[in-house]
From TrEMBL:
It comes from the Bacteria. Belongs to the short-chain dehydrogenases/reductases (SDR) family. PANTHER family: 3-OXOACYL-(ACYL-CARRIER-PROTEIN) REDUCTASE, NADPH-DEPENDENT REDUCTASE BACG. This is 3-oxoacyl-[acyl-carrier protein] reductase. Pfam families: adh_short_C2 (PF13561). CDD domains: BKR_like_SDR_like. Gene3D superfamilies: NAD(P)-binding Rossmann-like Domain.
Length: 262
């Protein structure tokens, strides 16, 4: 299927590895020019080389910096001639007990997982509407749909973003001009972040990593972890011309782990 994306420009946040990289790879494969961001310059440049090799016909630009800061956002936006596609993505805040979180801890989580995406949306959607095409994808978490007790910072910040976008996506000023906003809610994907989390869980329980990894995997109905490539493919479809009637939705990708009907 031709997704109708050739020549578009995308800003993909936290794209040096993991799910962000999977999205960038899928978009580049569809002929989209990309600006990719991440804090680590070395890994970011290596990813850019791989993306250029994947499709030499597209332009790949890098911006190393902290997207949660005004300076980081300004640099990323300045590198993109126009933002047709915005992929908001940031690592989640650490787990813990809410009793130990002070105001600064909460504000850091909100800055990364709610306010930064909103700032980037604010900077880009009017231009999208003026051009008659725009796609915003917010990579959040399956915890938005099924909150996890020790992930209170993520539950709160990401749910705040989800609620905000639910209203904005239904504004005729955007929806009537072919600008859609949707969320992608990952469950357990085989990423560096999951491996670090599982290493911590294994150490805490006194088991070895392989045992903990297999227990986690077998608890998923699909009995496997997701891949960044299949996540990216769904992201690319949501950005497509064919998905123009799909907005304000949250797509859960978790191999069947969520037990509810709705």
């Amino acid at each position: 299927m031709d997704l109708g994306l050739q020549g578009k420009w995308a800003l993909v946040c936290a794209a040096s590895k993991g799910l962000g990289r999977g999205c960038a790879e899928a978009l580049v494969g569809e002929g989209v020019n990309v600006v990719i961001t991440a804090r680590g310059a070395e890994v970011l440049e290596a990813t850019a080389l791989a993306l250029r090799a994947l499709n030499p016909a597209v332009e790949v630009r890098t911006v190393a910096g902290d997207i949660t800061t005004p300076e980081g956002r300004a640099a990323a936006l300045a590198a993109c001639p126009q933002v047709d596609i915005l992929i908001n993505n940031a690592g989640g805040p650490p787990p813990g007990d809410f009793r130990s979180w002070d105001r600064d801890t909460w504000l850091k989580a909100l800055d990364a997982n709610m306010l930064t995406p909103i700032e980037l949306i604010k900077a880009t959607v009017d231009g999208m509407a003026g051009r008659g095409y725009g796609r915003v994808i917010n990579i959040t978490s399956g915890a938005v749909k099924a909150p996890i007790d020790i992930l209170g910072l993520s539950n709160g910040a990401r749910s705040g973003l989800t609620g905000f976008v639910a209203g904005l996506a239904r504004s005729p000023k955007l929806a009537a001009h072919n600008v859609t906003l949707n969320g992608l809610l990952p469950g357990a994907f085989d990423t560096d972040r999951l491996r670090v989390t599982m290493q911590g869980a294994a150490a805490k329980s006194g088991s070895n990593f392989d045992e903990a990894w297999d227990r986690r995997r077998m608890a998923i109905p699909a009995q496997r972890f997701g891949t960044a490539q299949e996540f990216g493919a769904i992201c690319a479809f949501l950005c497509s011309q064919q998905a123009g009637y799909l907005t304000g939705q949250n797509i859960l990708l978790d191999g069947g782990a969520y037990p509810g009907t709705f």
